[in-house]
């Protein structure tokens, strides 16, 4: 079956900017407010307050894909330590040294943006802190390298290869089951953007293509296990995970990073 890849006009690209700026603003605010003792449900409520004030629409609260046990029911993903994706907010107070990833997607005026950020909460042992910072930095470097090749004439495989190359250089294995995706009027669309792949393969990048690029890695494995909540994905070996993501538009010139922070 042929998949429809939607391309946005220059006018539509401009219309998508406010959603990206809002997502970036919310993630910046939340990352500055998080402290030791902050409950994951508080973070969800803070994000919900932002959405209400802006008149935005959550992409998560009613989200119910085939792999989800039920509608997500919250407005942000909060993944802690060995949880790396789809972390369902629950009654948990963050502790010293926790590695927290926040993933947030909303629609503003009908246009979606999606972004993720990882951080260390409070203090940690020097060894643990160094390892966690290295893991977070690896996702951020992979994201930057992928964005750098997101230009007309390149292919999805070039983006995937850039991410995988950074991961392999850091000694990490890559799971390609979950990755980046098309973004537009809905949160998840075609094309799928794996976090590893062959350069010069796949869909050719054209101006107007908008995608979320999201490297996520786990320190000791590439295998996931699903929590009993039916959503939270954890490393099968208990190793920690980190996640970085931006929504990016391919243009005739430099890529536009809608969700750039600061």
Automatic annotation (TrEMBL):
A GO term for molecular function: aminopeptidase activity
E.C. numbers: 3.4.11.18
Domain Peptidase M24 stretches: 14-252
Cofactor(s) of this protein: Co(2+); Zn(2+); Mn(2+); Fe(2+)
Record note on cofactor: Binds 2 divalent metal cations per subunit. Has a high-affinity and a low affinity metal-binding site. The true nature of the physiological cofactor is under debate. The enzyme is active with cobalt, zinc, manganese or divalent iron ions. Most likely, methionine aminopeptidases function as mononuclear Fe(2+)-metalloproteases under physiological conditions, and the catalytically relevant metal-binding site has been assigned to the histidine-containing high-affinity site.
Keyword Hydrolase in annotation: yes
Keyword annotations from UniProtKB, A to Z: Aminopeptidase, Hydrolase, Metal-binding, Protease
Recorded catalytic activity of this chain's protein: Release of N-terminal amino acids, preferentially methionine, from peptides and arylamides
Enzyme class: hydrolase
Binding positions (a divalent metal cation 1): 103, 114, 245
Sequence positions that bind substrate: 86, 188
Domain of life, source organism: Bacteria
Annotated positions binding a divalent metal cation 2: 114, 181, 214, 245
The protein's role, per its UniProt record: Removes the N-terminal methionine from nascent proteins. The N-terminal methionine is often cleaved when the second residue in the primary sequence is small and uncharged (Met-Ala-, Cys, Gly, Pro, Ser, Thr, or Val). Requires deformylation of the N(alpha)-formylated initiator methionine before it can be hydrolyzed.
Quaternary data: Monomer.
Homology family: Belongs to the peptidase M24A family. Methionine aminopeptidase type 1 subfamily.
Protein name: Methionine aminopeptidase
Biological classification of the source: Bacteria, Bacillati, Actinomycetota, Actinomycetes, Micrococcales
Gene it is expressed from: map_3
């Amino acid at each position: 079956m042929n998949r429809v890849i939607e391309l946005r006009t220059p006018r539509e690209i401009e219309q998508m900017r406010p959603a990206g700026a809002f997502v970036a603003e919310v993630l910046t605010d939340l990352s500055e407010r998080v402290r030791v003792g902050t409950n994951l449900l508080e973070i969800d409520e803070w994000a919900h307050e932002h959405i209400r004030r802006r008149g935005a629409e959550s992409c998560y609260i009613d989200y119910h894909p085939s792999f989800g046990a039920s509608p997500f029911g919250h407005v942000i993903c909060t993944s802690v330590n060995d949880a790396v994706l789809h972390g369902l907010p629950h009654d948990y107070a963050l502790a010293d040294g926790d590695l927290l990833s926040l993933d947030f997607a909303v629609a503003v005026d009908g246009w979606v943006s999606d972004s993720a950020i990882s951080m260390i909460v409070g203090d940690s042992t020097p060894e643990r802190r160094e390892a966690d910072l290295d893991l977070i930095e690896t996702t951020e470097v992979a994201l930057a390298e992928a964005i750098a090749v997101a230009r007309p004439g390149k292919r999805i495989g070039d983006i995937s290869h850039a991410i995988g190359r950074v991961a392999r250089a850091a000694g990490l294995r890559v799971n390609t089951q979950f990755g980046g995706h098309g973004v537009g009027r809905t949160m998840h669309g075609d094309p799928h953007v794996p976090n590893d792949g062959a350069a010069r393969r796949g869909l050719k990048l054209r101006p107007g293509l908008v995608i979320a690029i999201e490297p996520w890695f786990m320190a000791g494995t590439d295998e996931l296990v699903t929590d009993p909540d039916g959503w939270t994905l954890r490393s099968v070996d208990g190793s920690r995970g980190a996640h970085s993501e931006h929504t990016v538009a391919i243009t005739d010139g430099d890529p536009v990073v809608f969700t750039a922070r600061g």
